Amino acid sequence: MKDEVWKIAKEIEKEVIEYRRHFHMYPELGFEEVKTSEFVIEKLKELGIEVTPNVAKVGVIGLIKGTGGEGKTIGIRADMDALPMQEENDVPYKSKHDGKMHACGHDAHTAILLGVAKILVKMKDKIKGNVKLIFQPAEEGLGGAKPMVQEGALKNPDVSAVIALHMADDVAIGHIEVKDGSFTASADKIMFEIEGKGGHAASPHETIDPIVVGSHLVTAFQTVSSRNTDPVNPVILTIGTFNAGTVYNVIPRTAHMTGTIRALKQEVRDATFESAKRIAEGVAKAFGAKITPGIKRGYAPGYNSPELNILIKEATSALFGEDKVLLAENPTMGAEDFYEFSENNRLPVAMFWLGIRNEDKGIIHPGHNPKYDIDEDALPLGCAILSLTALKYLTS
Ligand SMILES: [Zn+2]
Ligand SMILES: [Zn+2]
User: Fold this and answer.
1) pLDDT digits over 290-313, tens only?
2) Is residue 157 within 8 Å of residue 265, measured between CB atoms?
3) If DSSP codes are grouped into helix, strand and coil, which group holds residue 71?
4) What are phi and psi of 82, to 5 degrees?
5) Residue 181 scores a pLDDT above 90
6) By three-state DSSP, how is residue 73 classified?
7) Where are the beta strands (DSSP E) in the chain?
8) Which residue of 158, 248, 334, 378 is most buried, as measured by CB atoms within 10 A?
9) Cα–Cα nearest to 374, from 168, 176, 177
10) How many Cβ atoms sit within 10 Å of the Cβ of residue 310?
11) pLDDT (tens digit, 9 = 90+) per residue, 187-218?
């Protein structure tokens, strides 16, 4: 089976590279992936795949029904959105949309999933059950996965596992990196509105200075991870904005802060915000100010199924050799909304890193960098690994 997968992956390599370059040249931001979505639909229809368009606005689902017998349904997910930044690469496929760039490799993810579609359609007779191709909008912060799930992406037929890959700028080309269990962090936005009492800078005793209150708050927050959380459970509480005042000799009435909480465990995520609220209440009381905390929930912590990882490792080893499988030592404190497809850990899901780093080609820049690019030799590898993993899952 693996030889057939790799043979087709090599046959379609040029097309997949063309797709990737096309997406790279015409990047679209989250929930605005109209042309990307149309392109995906057209390619899936050419392959005779049943398509459901407009899931979560511009998301697309393709269903490949196997002819090898009844069986389970596995989902394979790709995200399609670009970032609001200016590309600084001088390449023939440079972004043609000013201020927009595929700097996280989602152009490659989408192209690879189209390649997977081509491979699996040709191998339909080997598929027991179905493969659902999930093209998701808006991964970069806006959260396209959740509305796709809410609109039935995992239903009819019911999906029993979902896999995905992500380009890895720190993993050498030809390799993948896999990690069981905890893989990505949650990412919530927090807000604090501090209300004091404004007045003349020369009469601070007649005011409640929200800048001083806020400064104490930021300092006190530093004890959340050092003194409130078990040190073996990583957590981040970062204040990213602190705005107050407009005039140098006036004590303002209010200050406004926003930040982020990131954690690898749901309990830690919840406990951290509780700690932050408690500290805010205490600081407010101590200074006679009023602090109103707020939270906007973002992505949940990501957990990779060890069972699915076994299949990913087996597929990669069979195709390219055991030495191509690296084990990631640590999770990342970055977040991924891919894990929404687990429906709060109801379904096993797994994402792996696909190496795209190649110093000889100058591919050394990290994701979200204006010089980010990928080694396109990774594209057929990604197509083959996802396809073979899916085939293995459906026969396991
Ligand atoms: Zn990104
Ligand atoms: Zn990404």
Assistant:
1) 999 999 999 999 999 999 999 999
2) no
3) coil
4) -105, -175
5) yes
6) strand
7) 50-55, 59-65, 73-79, 130-136, 161-172, 176-178, 181-184, 187-195, 199-200, 235-244, 250-251, 254-263, 290-299, 302-304, 325-327, 349-357
8) 378
9) 168
10) 16
11) 999 999 999 999 999 999 999 999 999 999 99
Distance 342 CA to ligand 1 centre (A): 20
The token pair that represents 381 in the structure block: 């590898």
Single-letter amino acid code for the residue at 169: D
Which two tokens mark 201? Answer: 């800078």
pLDDT band at 69 (very low <50, low <70, confident <90, very high): very high
- 354 with 166: CB under 8 angstroms? yes
Is residue 175 within 8 Å of 95, Cβ to Cβ? Answer: no
pLDDT score, position 396: 82
For ligand 1, a single-atom ion, the residues with CB < 5 A are: 104
pTM for this predicted structure? 0.91
Distance 377 CA to ligand 1 centre (A): 21
303 — phi, psi (to 5°)? -130, 120
Query: How many Å is the Cα radius of gyration of the chain?
Result: 24
CA of 196 to the centre of ligand 2 (A): 41
Residue 350 in tokens? 């797994």
Write out the catalytic residue numbers.
Answer: 299, 376
